[in-house]
Write a structure and sequence with these properties.
Helix content is 14%, strand content 31%. The N terminus is likely disordered. It has a five-stranded antiparallel sheet with strand order 4-3-2-1-5, with no helix packed on it. It is built from two helices and eight strands. With 136 residues, the chain is α+β, with helices and mostly antiparallel strands. The chain starts with 17 loop residues before the first strand and ends in a 9-residue tail after the last strand.
């Protein structure tokens, strides 16, 4: 084993993103991290922590692959869900593209206030399986 390249459960190549489970934690701590650079001689790697918003050193052996996402079902629609930074739905708008969705959301007072307060919003095109009959 090369001390600068410890073996990992997913092979010699580090993933772009991984779940970090500390081995000695019994409180269920989890973090999504982005490994940066190459592993250090002590078996750790510097990684950007999504939970803490800063770089941390984590043991390479404590990194696990991200869970598989379920496949998206349904056809893309012209409905967009607009959410705040916490992922709460602010509004939904109908638009053909991102620019039009953003413009439509800016016309809604609650969305406009939230965007100013939080520095922006998230926009996601909905699929047909995500809509109720009343949305169609």
């Amino acid at each position: 084993m090369n001390p600068t390249r410890p073996t990992a459960p997913y092979g010699p190549h580090l993933p772009e993103a991984a779940v970090y489970f500390p081995a000695d934690d019994d409180h269920g701590y989890r973090d999504v991290v982005l490994p940066q650079g190459t592993p250090h001689a002590d078996g750790t790697i510097t990684a950007l922590s999504a939970r803490l918003g800063k770089h941390i050193r984590v043991p390479v052996k404590a990194l696990h692959p991200l869970p598989e996402l379920p496949p998206l079902e349904g056809e893309p629609t012209n409905w967009w869900r607009i959410t705040d930074k916490a992922g709460r739905t602010v509004t939904q708008v109908q638009a053909d593209n991102y620019a039009q969705a953003k413009h439509a959301a800016e016309q809604i007072p609650a969305a406009h206030r939230t965007a100013r307060r939080e520095g922006g919003l998230s926009y996601r095109r909905l699929r047909s399986t995500e809509l109720s009959d009343s949305d169609l």
